[in-house]
TrEMBL record:
SMART domains: HATPase_c, HisKA, PAS. NCBIfam families: sensory_box. It catalyses: ATP + protein L-histidine = ADP + protein N-phospho-L-histidine. It comes from Kroppenstedtia eburnea. Pfam families: HATPase_c, HisKA, PAS. Keywords: ATP-binding, Kinase, Nucleotide-binding, Phosphoprotein, Transferase, Two-component regulatory system. This is histidine kinase.
């Protein structure tokens, strides 16, 4: 199997792999300083670890001058190379060895992985270890021939693209992308590869079997290979999700600062305005001015709506003092049912509570904040259905966690919007604030739980997952 690629491993991952490798391996930075070594390399040197690490490589291994230049300037000489050199064991004569160098860039700079073979080791032995490295990499590697047909693919790439190696090898490159849905940047990748245009760190994303994946892709032409080329795919999905969470936190922090600075100042004059409007409404009522009284009612309702919005601003921005304790969730829900039913009756909606177990273990949560979330989810469900319908609350779970599901039979949430509903200020309601679900999600996460949503034409289901108390 021909190999040529950049080794883009995290330094900690690479160090762990080297320390457990049975092959003679050493890693060197772009200054020629030894960073990690395998036990087999120390055995060949007949030298202890503390006398090798952080020492210049040329004390133990002589390489041709041009190769040392490549170590110091890897940008111009990246990829994989085979090199002859001399190992300098302690207390014995030099040994001629063959080295396989793989270069890669980490957060700390360039690193070179040197696999060392004695002259009596055959090409098959070298090939076997090279394949082992490629197959154990977390990065996806795809090799293409001069006609852009797949010649090799490692297990990581098979997982990322949802393909089988035996089915793909020998097929056209486009078969690599057939199972991907909702891709962004995939068309650009295919186009640049067909033009045989090398690139690095091109972002792309897709959905494979319902699971989103975010990657960066490198494409390079292999040196002196008759037109062969290769792809390196780095899975950055976890980093991407963390980045989204940080952005969400930043937005909430911004809202909190806005709320703290303005809400109280706005509420004070609103309270005065509302008081005078009530007096005016009473005067108009005594005079029998129904039209003027109607205008006053409209203004009072709008002031109440502003006050409600300011209240949610303050709740979003206020640091929550979460007081966790044992909560009997079934008991709390039964306490809330009369409140939920009173709201539902106004809209001709039936409410059903379906406990799935006889005995529920207690959950670890803040009872008042939890009640606020349940009421908010039920209110959203009632508003989504409008007039008439069925609102169901289902409680299920096991010894580890309880799941509360709030299901409505409204019009559902479009696929294009379902990932936005927990964003602050996002709403589809005419008079909505877009803060209710954002506050609910933040509360559930603060008490150590999780909130999920699924939706279709028959309605939506919000699931609140809470950890149970462990004795």
């Amino acid at each position: 199997m021909p190999i040529a690629f950049h080794l883009d491993l995290h330094p900690d991952q690479l160090a762990s792999w080297v320390k457990n490798c049975t092959q003679a391996v050493v890693t060197v930075d772009d200054q020629g300083v030894v960073k990690t070594v395998s036990p087999q390399f120390l055995k060949l040197l007949q030298c202890p670890l503390d006398q090798v690490v952080e020492q210049p490589l040329d004390r133990y291994l002589h390489l041709p001058p041009e190769e040392m230049e490549r170590l110091r300037h890897p940008d111009a000489h990246g990829g994989l190379r085979w090199v002859q050199g001399e190992l300098l064991p302690f207390g014995s004569s030099p040994k001629t060895v063959t080295l396989q160098r793989i270069s890669g860039k980490s957060s700390d700079g360039w690193l070179h992985l040197l696999l060392i073979y004695s002259r009596d080791q055959g090409a098959h032995h070298l090939q076997r270890h090279a394949e082992q490295i490629v197959n154990s990499l977390p990065q996806g590697i795809v090799l293409l021939d001069s006609t852009l047909r797949v010649t090799e693919i490692n297990p990581a790439a098979c997982r990322m693209f949802g393909v089988n190696k035996d089915d793909l090898c020998g097929q056209e490159m486009k078969r690599l992308f057939l199972r991907l849905e909702g891709g962004e940047g995939v068309d650009e990748l295919e186009d640049r590869i067909r033009r045989r245009e090398p690139f690095r760190d091109i972002p792309a994303s897709w959905i494979l079997e319902g699971v989103p994946q975010v990657v960066t892709v490198d494409y390079e032409i292999a040196a002196e290979s008759g037109g062969e080329s290769f792809l390196t795919i780095n899975d950055i999905t976890r980093n991407h999700l963390l980045d989204l969470k940080v952005r969400q936190t930043d937005r909430l922090a911004m809202i909190g600062q806005m709320a703290a600075g303005t809400a109280h100042e706005i509420r004070n004059p609103l309270t005065s305005i509302r008081g005078f409007l009530q007096v005016i409404r009473h005067t108009l009522d005594e005079r029998g001015d129904l039209k003027g009284q109607g205008y006053a009612e409209i203004m009072l309702r709008e002031i109440d709506r502003i006050n409600h919005l300011l209240g949610e601003f303050l709740l979003m921005g206020k640091p929550r003092n979460v007081k966790k304790r044992r909560v009997e969730l079934d008991h709390s829900l039964r306490e809330l049912l009369p409140i939920i039913e009173n709201e539902a009756i106004l809209h001709n909606i039936e409410v059903r509570y379906l406990p799935g177990l006889k005995d529920f273990p207690p959950v670890w949560a803040d009872p008042e904040l939890l009640k606020q979330v349940v009421l908010n989810l039920c209110k959203n469900g009632i508003e989504a259905m409008g007039e008439g319908g069925l609102l169901q609350l289902r409680l299920s779970g096991d010894e580890e966690r309880l799941i509360l599901e709030v299901e409505d039979h409204g019009p559902g949430i479009p696929d294009s919007e379902i990932n936005l509903i927990f964003d602050p200020f996002y709403t589809t309601k005419e008079n909505g604030t877009g803060l209710g679900l954002a506050v609910s999600k933040q509360i559930i996460e603060d008490i150590g739980g999780e909130i999920q949503v699924s939706s279709g034409e028959a309605g939506s289901i919000f699931s609140v997952i809470l950890p149970c108390v462990r004795d």
